[in-house]
Fold this protein.
Amino acid sequence: MRTVITFGTFDVFHIGHLNILKRARDLGDKLVVGVSTDALNFKKKNRYPIYREEDRLAIIAGLSCVDGVFREESLEWKGQYIREQKADILVMGDDWAGKFDVFKELCEVVYLPRTADISTTELLAGIRAAS
Ligand code: C2G
């Protein structure tokens, strides 16, 4: 049984998010996802997500490729989360390439290519422009 772990905000859920979660799940037998809390997101991006934390957690938990979710409360606790979840593989999009290599001593670390031409930021800009 190989457990895959990944992390993200998954705000305004879109096809890029679904693609990475499905590809992450395909690398193992079980996928657990750390969803960034609203507070962590404010620290990272200086703004709160559009979708609130409970809804982002519920959306990710409701996907058939996801076996479990938990709150990612701090970027510094990744090693702890990997141990707690007994993860064998950490998957992140390649916008994070190299950033998590330190965890290679705990598990395999894989960076998957991002889906081109879509991001929450671009979606929000498009919605603003259209309204
Ligand atoms: N992603 C993707 N393709 C896109 C957009 C996003 O593959 N077009 C991936 C990202 O690379 C990331 C995941 O989807 O692996 C979640 O993206 P975000 O919600 O933007 O996550 P982020 O805010 O970068 O949080 O501890 C790390 C962080 O929690 C990651």
Observations:
- The radius of gyration is 14 Å.
- The chain has five helices and five strands.
